[in-house]
Amino acid sequence: MKPLLLALSIATLVAACATTTSPTGRTQRVGAVSQEQLNQLGAQAFTQAKAQNRQSTDARQSGYVRCVVNAITRELPSGWQAQWETALFADASPNAFALPGGKVGVNTGIFTVAKTQDQLAAVIAHEIGHVVSRHHDERVTRQMGAQAGLGIVGAIVGSAYGQGAANATSQLGGAAVQAAFLLPNNRTQETEADVVGQQLMASAGFDPQQAVNLWENMIAASSSRAPQFLSTHPDPRARIAELRGRAGALAPTYQRARASGRTPNCG
């Protein structure tokens, strides 16, 4: 009886989900959980990350990251402009993440590839782009519809840590669900976060061309294994070409932002 009730509950929940349009015009299915619940789960995952990973004691670097985050989040729509919390983790891997509820985590290893404030802005804006594009909501909704026993918190944490999604999903539902629902969706979401993030950084007064330089640095820093940031995109060189094309189109946005006084000085 309990499995039947669980299946019926989830079927009812998924049936109640909404269809919406992403910032790039893509149709999304969302709403398996409320935004308030997503924010709570994001806060829970962030607390877990801080408990399990050592945080940097470098006040200058922490302030640098916070300055970039603040400059970007000021450009968000009003519903997303709550105070964003940041954490800088003492971790050599070049990675970062953002979560619902206004949470941003950055590894100190990101500074080996994000060599300027504009390049760091490209990283952070990309991650915040995932949040404002409701990618976590979309991922949870897809997973809940895919398998009755799939854990919501695992989905949130998987979204935050990229490659860790495979481990969480294997524990909670198996590789078949991960292959069918997570990895293809990740590639779509990565591209969308590139688009939204590059627009955000240009509006905040960061040079959108530096997104190209960032990804070139990421590829140059990788040897036999691509860094985590590149793991979900099928063709990094194609990604760079797309970023370069958008950078030219966003030049007027960047110039208007600078002319209006949005001139971040974080580094």
From TrEMBL:
InterPro entries: Mito/Outer_Membr_Metalloprot, Peptidase_M48. Residues 61-246 form the Peptidase M48 domain. Its cofactor is Zn(2+). Residues 1-18 form the signal peptide. Keywords: Hydrolase, Metal-binding, Metalloprotease, Protease, Signal, Zinc. Gene3D superfamilies: Metalloproteases ('zincins'), catalytic domain. Binds 1 zinc ion per subunit. PANTHER family: M48 FAMILY METALLOPEPTIDASE (PTHR22726:SF24), METALLOENDOPEPTIDASE OMA1 (PTHR22726). Belongs to the peptidase M48 family. This is M48 family metallopeptidase. It comes from Lysobacter koreensis. The lineage of its organism: Bacteria, Pseudomonadati, Pseudomonadota, Gammaproteobacteria, Lysobacterales.
